[in-house]
Amino acid sequence: MAKHIIGLSTFLADVNGNRTFYIEPSSIEDMKQGSRRATRTKTLDGGAVVYDAGFSPSDITFKISVRAENVYAGQFFSMLTQTYNLIRVCTDSGVYSAVPSRWFEAKGIATLEALVMEQLA
Fold first, then answer.
1. Residue pair 105/74 in contact by the 8 Å Cβ criterion
2. What is the pTM of this model?
3. Domain of 112?
4. pLDDT tens digits, 41-68
């Protein structure tokens, strides 16, 4: 399995110090996946109409998991979720602006979920 390095940072400066974090996550879900924006609607004649708006980077949700032995990861995920409404996520597939929607820790793994707003680069 290829190793990935993820960079997480804020768009705003913080008086408490640099808010950039580079990690080698234990797993990254949905990193290169997304779904098409398609809907199917029944018509009165029993058929169906399909509307397909295609794929957009904003359909991606990153789930970045780190072993909890890296205590700072959980603290950083918590700070991002509670303090910032928009973060920068840098991966090998691009740079994204994302909303840190939630974080949790279970079975020794800290996980951050980030909803992509747009691909920046």
1. yes
2. 0.69
3. 6-31+57-119
4. 888 898 888 877 666 677 778 888 888 6
